[in-house]
Amino acid sequence: MKTVLAFGDSLTWGYDPETGLRHDFFSRWPIVAGRKLGHDVRVIGEGLNGRTTAFDDHLVAAERNGAKILPTLLATHQPLDVLVIMLGTNDLKRDTGGGRVFESRQGLERLVEIAQCFPYQRGYQAPKILLVAPPHFCQTTEPDFALLFGHAVEESQHFRSAVTKVAEEYGCAMFDAAEVCETSPMDGVHLDAENTIRLGEALVEPIRALLD
């Protein structure tokens, strides 16, 4: 049995921009990818709304700093064959990551360092890593999300180049979600069910390539 850990934010959790609730279980991208990878591959979805790469958010009860929680998840789910990281969206909030892809890139580097250097149980190796650049933001008239992310619509266009740079420096695989899905204008940052499913299907081959 191969094990894949999908580490992300609300896009991995399955936030539905229409209802503000969660997509149907079988529409969430880790479940879609896991079903298509087959019975000998287990994909664990570890998504949390608002999660950042490495920045604190003191406005909520849950720990949203990815760098703080990742070591616990690596220990919990080991041995891991592949770690998929799709984070960065919430780093573009001005009150957490600073509002720029530059900070997101720095946080992503920290996550990769944690995963590659973690003291795994004797006999276990560090997982291969697939970095997924988040989809581009789009304009929205939803007032709260417009305030949170409206300033960063153009900035989000730089996710691909930033994630590619990290992948090249640390020897990771890379995939650009913007190639296969588009965010919903209902809030400008999340994916509807169709696009969430599309992302899961598109990630099957990149994950399988690392498992092979």
Helical proportion, percent range: 25-40%
Tell me the quaternary state. Answer: single chain
> What is the fold-level CATH name, i.e. the topology?
Rossmann fold
Give the helix tally.
8
Count of distinct structural domains:
1
Number of strands: 5
Structural category is alpha/beta
Which sheet architecture does the biggest sheet show? 5 strands, parallel
Binned strand content = 5-15%
Element string (H = helix, E = strand): EHHEHEHEHHEHH
> How many whole angstroms does the radius of gyration measure?
16 Å
Which CATH architecture?
Answer: 3-Layer(aba) Sandwich
CATH homologous superfamily classification? SGNH hydrolase
What would you say this structure looks like, in words?
By secondary structure, the protein is an alpha/beta fold. The chain has a single domain, classed as 3-Layer(aba) Sandwich (Rossmann fold). The chain contains eight helices and five strands; from the N terminus they run E-H-H-E-H-E-H-E-H-H-E-H-H. Strands 2-1-3-4-5 form a five-stranded parallel β-sheet, sandwiched between helices. It is globular. This is SGNH/GDSL hydrolase family protein. Residues 6-193 form the SGNH hydrolase-type esterase domain.
